[in-house]
Amino acid sequence: MQVKIQNLSKTYKEKQVLQDISFDIKSGTVCGLLGVNGAGKSTLMKILFGLISADTGKIFFDGQEKTNNQLGALIEAPAIYMNLSAFDNLKTKALLFGISDKRIHETLEVIGLAETGKKRAGKFSLGMKQRLGIGMAILTEPQFLILDEPTNGLDPDGIAELLNLILKLKAKGVTILISSHQLHEISKVASQIIILNKGKIRYDHANNKEDDIEQLFFKIVHGGM
Ligand SMILES: Nc1ncnc2c1ncn2[C@@H]1O[C@H](COP(=O)(O)OP(=O)(O)OP(=O)(O)O)[C@@H](O)[C@H]1O
User: Fold this and answer.
1) Does the keyword Nucleus apply (predicted)?
2) Which residues contact ligand 1 via a Cβ below 6 A?
3) φ and ψ at 127, to 5 degrees?
4) Contact 22, 8 (CB under 8 A)
5) ipTM, 2 decimals?
6) Based on the structure, what is the number of domains in the chain?
C-alpha cells in the first residue's frame, strides 16, 4: 500500500507539535522515522493510524482518503493479556474479526512464537512481548504497519529478531513505518529515512547504506538544519 501524507499540522493547546508534514512512502517499503524525544513521531503515527485527528492535512492510502481496515499498529506498550498464552492473545482478536485458527498459527510462525505453547505472555521476554504485539497488529493482514519504537528496551538479540521480523513482513509486501532511537539498526532495514525535528521534516531521502546515519542525525538535530 502506498501512503501519501500531505501538509499535516497538529497543535496541542499553544504548542505546535507537527508543522506542515508531507512525505510519501512507496508500497512495500520500510520507512524509518527518526527524531529525538518530543520531536512529534508518536503524534504523527497516532494521526496516521486514526487514533487522533490532525488540525489540517490529508492522508491518502493507495490514493484513497479512507482505508478498509488495512492498517495495523503497535504504538506504545503492546496491548496484550499477560495471563494468556500467545495463541489465546491472538484468539481474543481473531474472535472479534472472524479470523481462523489457521491464520493464528501462521501469525505465530511469522512472529517466531509458534513453540511457546501454553506459556503465559507475562513470562515472555520483552522481545517476545513486542513480537506478540506485532502479531496482534498483523493478524488481520494489514497492508500498512505502523511501529512506534518497537526496539525500545530490547537487548541486541531482541533487536535482531525484531528487525528480522520486519524484513519478513516487508518480503510479504507490507509497507512499514517504524520509529526508533536505534539509528544504526533502523538504517539496516529502512529503504527511506525521515528525520523529524521540532515538528518539521528536516530530511527525507532514500537510505544510502553508505551514509553515516548517526552523524547525519546529530548534524540535523544539533546543527539546527
Ligand atoms: N496529548 C497531549 N497533550 C499535550 N501535549 C502533548 C500530547 N501528546 C504529546 N504532546 C507533546 O507533543 C510533543 C511531541 O510528542 P510526541 O510523543 O509526538 O513525540 P515523540 O517524537 O514521539 O517523542 P518520544 O520519542 O519521547 O516518544 C511533546 O512536546 C509532547 O509533550
Assistant:
1) no
2) 12, 17, 35, 37-43
3) -65, -40
4) yes
5) 0.94
6) 1
pLDDT at 179 over 80: yes
Is 196 inside a domain boundary?
yes
User: Which one of 11, 17, 46 would you pick to mutate in the ligand 1 pocket, going by the greatest count of ligand atoms within 8 A of its CB?
Assistant: 17
Name the DSSP letter for residue 90. Answer: H
pLDDT beyond 80 at 66: no
Ligand 1, atom 3: nearest CA belongs to which residue? 12
Residue with CA at minimum distance from ligand 1 atom 8: 43
Closest C-alpha residue for ligand 1 atom 6 = 12
Structural domain containing residue 44: 3-216
Which DSSP string do the residues of 141-184 spell out, in sequence order? Answer: --SEEEEESTTTT--HHHHHHHHHHHHHHHHTT-EEEEEES-HH
- Answer whether residue 225 shows pLDDT above 60: no
Determine the atom of ligand 1 nearest the C-alpha atom of 43: 18
